[in-house]
Each structure stands twice: as C-alpha cells, then as structure tokens.
Design brief:
Elements: E1 24-30, H1 48-56, E2 58-64, H2 70-79, H3 98-104, E3 108-113, E4 131-133, H4 143-150, H5 152-172, H6 187-200, E5 205-211, H7 222-228, H8 235-246, H9 253-283, E6 290-296, E7 301-302, E8 308-309, H10 316-319, E9 320-321, E10 323-326, E11 333-340, H11 344-351, H12 366-371, E12 393-399, E13 416-422, E14 426-431, E15 436-441, H13 458-479, H14 482-494, H15 499-507
Parallel strand pairs: 1-5, 1-6, 2-11, 3-4, 3-5
Antiparallel strand pairs: 2-9, 2-10, 6-10, 7-8, 12-13, 13-14, 14-15
Helix pairs in contact: 4-15, 6-9, 7-9, 8-9
Length: 511
C-alpha cells in the first residue's frame, strides 16, 4: 500500500519509521489458525487474500503464540503480557490493554469478536474500545434458540438444507450475492460491524476483528470445500466426519482427511471475508494509509500428538501461527527470526505514533518491519536494519489429570503448569510441577516426535541449560500470583455467568 498524504495521520509526528505513514491499523485474528494452513507458509494451501497481504507486506516465518488456546493467548495479543501475569486470572480485566492506550491517545477503537465467549466483558476485553460487540448476547430466550447456540453444527445443517430454496429465490429476484450462505460462525455479523465502523469513523482508528470459522466444528460453505479439494468431498462427508468425532468414535485416515479438508475450507472462507473487509477500506478511501496485521491466536492439532482440536499442549501445531504485517510505505519481505504475539500491542502503538504502556512485555517490531528485505530474512547486524529480539518466546498451558478433561483448566490451581521456550531452531517444554522435560530440534524434527531431553548430548544439554532458567523465571512469576489465582477461581465459582455466555462456551466445547 502507498501513503495518502492528504489523510491526517496519528503517526506523522512520532512514528518510529520515516518510511511508513499510518493513520489506521486493522488487526485481524483468526481462532485456531495454524501457520501451515495458509499459502504464505505452505504453497499447497489456498488463501489468495492472505497471500496478497504477504506479497505486499512482511511475513514472520517463526511467529509463536503464548498459549495453546484463546484465553491463554489473548492476554499477549491485546495486552502484551502473559496469561496469569497480573491477577492470576485468564482475562485482561486488570491489565493495560492496547485499546485503552490507543483510546487515551485519541485513536478511535472498534472491536468485533465472532462469539468467542472468552473474549467478552466477563474477562475485561471491551476495556478501551469505543465500539465493542462480541455477538454473544443475541442467542435468544427460547429453548430452541438456546439449543442452536450450543450446537452450531445443527444450526449449520439447517441453514445448509434450506440453502437451495434461498439461492433459487435470489435468482428469481435477480439478486447476485457472491458470499457463502452459512453464518453459523457469525462471520457476516462481524464483517458487517467492522465495515460499518470503518464507514462511520473519520478520525484515525484501530480496528480488531476476530474470526471463529476455523474453530471446531468446521462448517464451511460447500463452495469453499470445492475450492480446496477435488470436489468429491460433499456435505454428507462433512456430517460423517463431525458425527464420528462428536460420538467419540475412532478417527481413521478417512475421517482425518475429511476434517483437514473441512478445516482448509474454513480457512478459505475466512480468507474471502478478509478480502471483503479490505475492499471496504478501499471503498472508504483509507486503504492507502491503513496497516493490516493478521495472526492466528493459536493453532490446531490433527492427531500429530494423539488428539484433535487444541487441548493443553505446547507443540508447534498449536503454537506456531501465521503473522503477517502489511504496512503502507514499507516494501516488506520475510523475517525468519522468532517473535511472540506479545509484540502486537507495542507494534500497533508504534505504527500509530503512540507510546507503549510500560507494563507491556513485548517490543515493537516496526524497526524489524522497516529492515525486512526481499531475500527472505530480517536484516542482520551487517545490514541496514536490526534483528528481531533474541529472547526466546515463552508459552504456557495448564493440564489436569487427563489431557481432554472438561472443563479445560483455566487457572494455575487447575493442574500442572507447562512452560515452553522457543528460539529459531529449538523447542524446550517443561512440566514445571512434575519436573518433566522435553527438547526438540525443529529443523530435523519439525513435528516434535523425538524428545532429545531423555539422553542429551553436549549441544543439547547446552540448549537445555540456556532455556531452563527462562522457564523457571517465568514459572516463578506466575506462581507469585498463585494466591490471586485461587482467589479468582473461588470468585468465578460464586459468580453467575450469564446464560448466553455459557451457551457460547459450550458451543466451543468448553463445558
């Protein structure tokens, strides 16, 4: 994108890079989006809109989430601090959020979340947003409406069955609509709200949009299944795959193949929606001075380590996520150094010329974006630009007695604390409470199957010795909040979570 000097910019006075002129920032987060699900990271995938962002922007090849699921990851994405770091709770209610910092600086802020119950006012996420809509409270009061809210797959099948009639009606009326006809994920609601925010906002703005289509259950419109497959996979196979998994039946190669196809189709569905969102920036005349950042909040497992979805583990299928930044005035490229998603708040603030909060843990990547070259790496010490930060990326999860236990742990008191540390090549994972360690060399073992910590050689022991203090320090930081965690858990047990929120959490599989 190119800069439009006629548009007032919040970054004109204070931006870190003289090359980038940014008035607005759009942050797109996609639930359960693993890195190899989009074409900038795997050329066999189909995500042309995200590909376009990558071609015009910067791709971070080694971007890592700080947790394995939404409530463990989003404190870093919107508040630049690890989960449990402030109150022992999974939310950001006591944190200094990105939206609060920007709003205080006079930036208009809008946040729209596709009904993820963990990104609501119950956990402090609306703080600082001028406009915020989680699309959780519109479930309806009838028993039928509540059932559909808690069973989105059923809702999708009902919509799917009625779609031929609706499409025929559209043809009779002479209407043309290139959008898919399913909205079980509230994608259109989010899309329309975000577009309305852009249309109605004249001042510099920050817009956050969170998609849920790639979260289980995967219920894409058939047109996108056809786009990512040979066209043979039909709606009956969609039903077959979800029926087997929901009934707890064995997941064989056929079912796993169907689930992967459905997942890739939901990625393409989100990709198309992002394209329409970008079109709205063009139509509003703000595309040329709007930076667009895209990231997955965590990944998704397809039995790489024995399970589906995103249970409490810290392997790459759950932690390695896409992170793409398209900034006007910067050529972009690829950055191969490791970065954590806690860099998002200071980077957005930097792009908009706003000082970061002193409480934030991450560092701005604007200098890295300015120094990214076209050869596929961040500029090194001998070139014009700086390296990415050297500190390893730390991620956290909590696991109960069983990996698949429900409810999934939400506090430090709910199970064993797992902490991982990653650099460019190595992944170190430690069950801090049990003292169990794992070490993986990702270039030679990309799916992390061979635990080198069992009998480490000299080089491997040196890596363990380097990472272990980092993990221990992080665990100590979180344990200092142990009492707060217990108090928060007790308070949550006494609180009444509203029925709409409970229905949406159940729909996500979190009972």
């Amino acid at each position: 994108m190119t800069s439009d000097s006629s548009t007032p910019s919040a970054a004109d006075a204070d931006a870190s890079s003289d090359d980038a002129t940014v008035s607005n920032v759009v942050l797109v987060t996609v639930d359960s989006l693993r890195a190899d699900a989009v074409s900038p990271y795997d050329t066999d995938r189909r995500s042309p809109v995200i590909d376009g962002l990558a071609n015009g922007g910067t791709v971070f090849d080694r971007a890592f989430a700080t947790g394995n699921w939404t409530p463990f990851s989003f404190p870093s994405i919107l508040a630049s601090e690890p989960v449990f770091a402030r109150s022992g709770d999974i939310g950001v209610d006591e944190s200094v959020t990105l939206a609060e910092v920007l709003s205080d600086a006079g930036i208009a802020t809008g946040g729209f979340n596709a009904a993820n119950g963990f990104l609501t006012d119950h956990w402090g996420y609306p703080d600082g947003f001028d406009e915020f809509e989680p699309f959780v409270t519109s479930v309806g009061s009838s028993r039928y409406s509540r059932y559909l809210a808690a069973h989105p797959t059923v809702e999708a099948w009902i919509q799917l069955a009625s779609s031929p009639i609706r499409r025929l009606g559209s043809k009779v009326r002479g209407e043309s609509d290139d959008r898919p006809f399913l909205d079980a994920s509230r994608m259109f609601d989010v899309e329309d709200a975000a577009t309305g925010f852009v249309d109605d906002t004249d001042e510099p703005f920050f817009l956050w949009v969170h998609y849920m289509d790639t979260h289980t259950p995967y219920v894409p419109a058939p047109r996108y299944i056809r786009e990512v497959s040979d066209g043979i996979v039909g709606t009956h196979q969609m039903l077959h795959a979800h029926a087997r998994t929901s009934l707890g039946l064995e997941v064989g190669e056929r079912t796993l193949r169907e689930l992967r196809t459905l997942y890739q189709a939901t990625v393409r569905q989100v990709d198309a929606s992002i394209g329409r969102l970008l079109d709205s920036l063009d139509e509003a005349g703000v595309a040329d001075d709007t930076a667009v950042l895209l990231a997955g909040d965590h990944g998704e497992e397809f039995q790489e380590h024995g399970h589906l979805a995103h249970y409490p583990k810290l392997y790459d299928e759950l932690i390695h996520v896409p992170f793409v930044a398209d900034v006007p005035g910067l050529d972009g490229g690829r950055v191969d150094g490791h970065v954590g998603l806690d860099a998002i708040p200071p980077t957005v603030a930097d792009l908009l010329g706003v000082d970061p909060a002193p409480e934030w843990h991450g560092e701005s990547l604007v200098p890295v974006l300015s120094g990214a070259d076209e050869t596929g790496s961040a500029a090194d010490d001998d070139a014009d630009g700086p390296d990415v930060p050297d500190d390893p990326v730390v991620s956290v999860t909590v696991r109960g007695e069983e990996v698949t236990q429900q409810p999934i742990p939400r506090s430090l008191a709910d199970g064993d604390l797992f902490v991982s540390a990653r650099d460019d090549d190595w992944t170190y994972i430690e069950n801090v409470d049990a003292g169990e360690r794992e070490l993986y060399h990702r270039p030679s073992d990309p799916t992390q199957q061979e635990n080198l910590a069992v009998d480490p050689n000299e080089e491997e022991q040196a890596v363990i010795d380097r990472f272990e203090p980092v993990v221990d320090a992080h665990a100590e930081l979180l344990r200092e909040r142990g009492a707060a965690a217990e108090a928060a858990a007790a308070e949550r047990a006494e609180e009444e979570v509203d029925e709409d929120l409970e229905a949406r959490l159940e729909a996500l599989g979190y009972k």
